[in-house]
Design brief:
339 residues, alpha/beta, 2 domains, five-stranded mixed β-sheet, 28% helix
């Protein structure tokens, strides 16, 4: 018996506050031996979560587009809720339960994903498709909150580092349904466990992240680590995209729209060149939003839908890698139009 078609039916997003220009971080910049590294070339703008704005607040605001287009009932009656939050509001548990309550949901499944990182939207699509196609419901919501820029990276002693000028905040909610409206054609998810743990937090003096002490945490980047991450990211994202293309019988050059995470301009250029796609077939909002981590794919997809860059019948390829290269995923969808 064939499994039912599962679609990424819609996506809606939210960017907090007014755009913050590159000069904001320039005023705090100090001597940093990574200042000129291509990995940390600042975007023109990005957005920051407000000091009193929680991840749940962000997701609730992102969901409003879905509610306006599909009604409260579609959101409230969803059978599955899959979430990913870059900086959880509480250390010991994720945001799934709180998001379900805020949106008026009583889902059978609530799953918080951590390992997906910047590729969390693809991983969540994979999980949602598996659950819905096996009969565990007819509707799933995917909720992504990237809230590290205005919290973690804007700490007074962290924002002076080159790494802090790149991230931006945003949130997204995707609607996945048992239907053939915008069918998911294929998904490839790969875990590279040998690289797990290579992304680290750095404190001076050293301590565990939860221990009290002087100084604030930052990502433990070194020239050597950056070189490895660049090599892995340049390889992994095209690899998973090629794997999906091979599975669904699509020449990569026939991808109508490529949507990736967006750590920096170098990755964006290298990925589209690897897939032999022109710039106009690769959506990015890097200079408007910075590195949106896990929210990058859905935010860019929402922008592409809203301004007509992707049209009914187009094949959209979503691809990303996470952390220091411990996970990568790609998913292809034939877009059927926004209801």
């Amino acid at each position: 018996m064939s499994q039912p078609a599962v679609s990424l039916t819609d996506v809606s997003t939210y960017l907090p506050g007014e755009p913050i220009g590159a000069d904001y971080y320039a005023q705090f910049a100090e001597s940093d031996n990574l200042r000129d590294n291509l990995m940390f070339r600042a975007p023109r703008f990005r957005h920051h979560v407000a000091p009193d704005e929680s991840a749940i607040d962000m997701v609730e605001r992102a969901a409003q587009g879905l509610i306006e287009r599909h009604g409260h009932d579609v959101v409230e009656s969803a059978d599955v809720l899959i979430t990913h939050t870059q900086v959880p509001d509480m250390a010991f548990y994720g945001e799934g339960g709180g998001i379900a309550h805020r949106l008026g949901m009583r889902p059978s499944w609530v799953l918080d994903l951590n390992n997906g990182g910047c590729a969390a939207f693809v991983l969540a699509l994979n999980v949602a498709r598996k659950l819905l196609s096996s009969g565990d419901g007819r509707t799933a919501l995917i909720a992504i909150a990237q809230n590290a820029a205005g919290q973690f990276f804007d700490q007074p002693r962290t924002r002076c580092k080159a790494q802090s000028a790149v991230p931006g905040d945003g949130a997204a909610v995707g609607l996945v349904t048992v239907s053939d409206q915008s069918p998911i054609l294929g998904i490839e998810c790969r875990t590279y466990g040998e690289y797990a743990g290579e992304m680290t937090l750095s404190f001076d003096p050293p301590r565990k992240w939860w221990q009290a002490g002087p100084g604030e945490g930052s990502i433990g980047f070194t020239e050597s680590k950056i070189t490895k991450v660049l090599a892995r990211g340049n390889r992994q994202v095209p690899e998973v995209a090629f794997a999906v293309c091979d599975r669904i019988g699509l020449d990569p050059k026939d991808i109508d729209l490529l949507v990736t995470n967006q750590p920096n301009r170098v990755f964006l250029r290298n990925w589209r060149e690897a897939l032999e796609l022109p710039k106009e077939h690769h959506r990015d909002t890097f200079d408007e939003c910075g590195n949106l981590f896990g929210a990058g794919i859905p935010v860019n997809l929402d922008r592409a839908i809203s301004d007509g860059q992707v049209k009914s019948g187009d094949v959209v390829m979503m691809a990303a890698f996470a952390h220091a290269g411990d996970f990568a995923g790609a998913a292809a969808v034939r877009w059927g139009g926004r209801p």
